From TrEMBL:
<dbReference type="InterPro" id="IPR050583">
    <property type="entry name" value="Mycobacterial_A85_antigen"/>
</dbReference>
<dbReference type="InterPro" id="IPR000801">
    <property type="entry name" value="Esterase-like"/>
</dbReference>
<keyword id="KW-0732">Signal</keyword>
<dbReference type="GO" id="GO:0016301">
    <property type="term" value="F:kinase activity"/>
</dbReference>
<keyword id="KW-0802">TPR repeat</keyword>
<dbReference type="InterPro" id="IPR019734">
    <property type="entry name" value="TPR_rpt"/>
</dbReference>
<protein>
    <submittedName>
        <fullName>Histidine kinase</fullName>
    </submittedName>
</protein>
<keyword id="KW-0808">Transferase</keyword>
<keyword id="KW-0418">Kinase</keyword>
<dbReference type="InterPro" id="IPR029058">
    <property type="entry name" value="AB_hydrolase_fold"/>
</dbReference>
<dbReference type="InterPro" id="IPR011990">
    <property type="entry name" value="TPR-like_helical_dom_sf"/>
</dbReference>
<feature type="signal peptide">
    <location>
        <begin position="1"/>
        <end position="17"/>
    </location>
</feature>
<feature type="repeat" description="TPR">
    <location>
        <begin position="329"/>
        <end position="362"/>
    </location>
</feature>
<dbReference type="Pfam" id="PF00756">
    <property type="entry name" value="Esterase"/>
</dbReference>
Length: 384
């Protein structure tokens, strides 16, 4: 129940604390367009940090539920902080005009083409100039706008890295064009698709065709997920889909849990330290999220290495420790542990001595190092 109450609290906080508004004068649209901006809680306190950006079409009603889900996920360490941009589309006929397409060509047309250019050529550059953004961009929409986000996939170099489509009313040829694009992509792309069992056939049947065709394309660079939510309507399924989409995209960001450990790590015959390094490299290179290796993840891999008697991998763990915590005793401790387990107490003692002169970290401190030094020195005398 604590998590349920916390979720409501975070949604309430996100609706007021981090939220502000801006107006952009658009040459493409020939008018001013209002946006909602959500900055991460740490934005002012971390002036060097850059954040992924989540762009929301239908920002009038998608901003708050997305903001609440992100706040909830970041509280538990499952999602990174991000900048959220909600585009207002509820004035007069803005939403319908923004999503105008040519029914024969299945492409943005007239006001729809102008809105397409507004997002790509004006809004994104404006946000990236004004705020500290990482290269990782996400875009999301619902029904008409969910279909519209897919047009950015058609570009030779897609503008966004991740696409979230809730019950899209797919444009003509879209169920074929998207899989064709996915078959050819050479960089990682994330794609989330959802539908409600309460959606009408006009919406569901093209979505089902799209789902089948994407699975046939079968490109490992496409991180794809499709959800069909039972007992939901066209509108209520969105509240189920938002966390599912975010957790799919940022799956690698989460701390190592029992499922990841059992299914992906413990089954390896070797390369445990490499797995840890690759996990955080993917966060940085693919998601644009740079954080030091969590000590909880580090200890999980260290314990597995000891369990598997793969002591040579402790040298790699030392490298990871030195890169992520260069002033801390972690790296030298790992080398000491490696030599200890390999039966070389003299060299182990020297590494523990080096570690004792560095900063403590986690459960490692000077007292622990002195105990290890005494233990190694005693062992070295016995083996003479």
């Amino acid at each position: 129940m604590r998590k349920v109450y916390l979720l409501f609290a975070l949604i309430s906080i996100s609706a007021f604390a981090q939220k502000k508004f801006d107006n952009i004068q658009s040459e493409k649209l020939g008018e001013e367009r209002r946006i909602t901006i959500g900055l991460p809680e740490s934005y002012e306190a971390n002036p060097e940090k850059k954040y992924p950006v989540l762009y929301l079409l239908d920002g009038d009603y998608l901003f708050d539920p997305f903001s609440g889900a992100v706040s909830y996920g970041t509280y538990w360490g499952d999602l990174p902080e991000m900048i959220i941009i909600g585009i207002h589309q509820n004035k007069n006929d803005e939403r319908e005009d923004d999503t105008t397409i040519d029914q024969n060509e299945g492409l943005p047309f007239e006001k729809g083409a102008e809105f397409f250019e507004f997002v790509g050529a004006e809004l994104v550059p404006y946000i990236e100039k004004k705020y500290r953004t990482s290269p990782f961009r996400i875009i999301a929409g619902h029904d008409l706008t969910a279909s519209f986000v897919n047009f950015y996939l058609y570009k030779e170099q897609p503008l966004f890295n991740a696409y979230i489509c809730f019950s899209p009313e797919l444009a003509p040829k879209m169920e074929v064009r998207i899989p064709e694009k996915f078959a050819k992509v050479t960089e990682p792309v994330f794609y989330y698709l959802s539908a409600a069992d309460g959606d009408n056939k006009k919406i569901k049947e093209p979505i089902e065709k799209l789902d089948s065709n994407i699975k046939l394309a079968n490109n490992p660079l496409v991180n794809y997920k499709y959800d069909l939510f039972k007992g939901t309507t066209h509108y209520t399924q969105v509240l189920h889909a938002i966390p599912s989409a975010l957790y799919q995209i940022f799956e690698v960001y989460k701390p190592i849990n029992s499922a990841e450990y059992n299914d992906k790590i413990a089954v390896l015959e070797t390369g445990y330290a490499d797995y840890l390094e690759n996990k955080y490299n993917t966060m940085s290179k693919v998601l644009g999220v740079q954080i030091p290796v969590r000590m909880s993840d580090f200890k999980i891999i260290e314990n597995l290495i000891l369990k598997k008697n793969a002591y040579d991998e402790l040298g790699k763990m030392a490298e990871i420790g030195n890169v992520n915590y260069p002033k801390a005793m972690l790296g030298e401790y790992e080398l000491g542990l490696m030599y200890e387990k390999m039966g070389d107490p003299k060299r182990a003692s020297k590494k523990y001595q080096n570690a004792s002169q560095m900063e403590p970290i986690g459960d490692l401190n000077k007292d622990v190092m002195y105990e290890k030094i005494d233990e190694m020195n005693t062992l070295a005398k016995k083996t003479k």
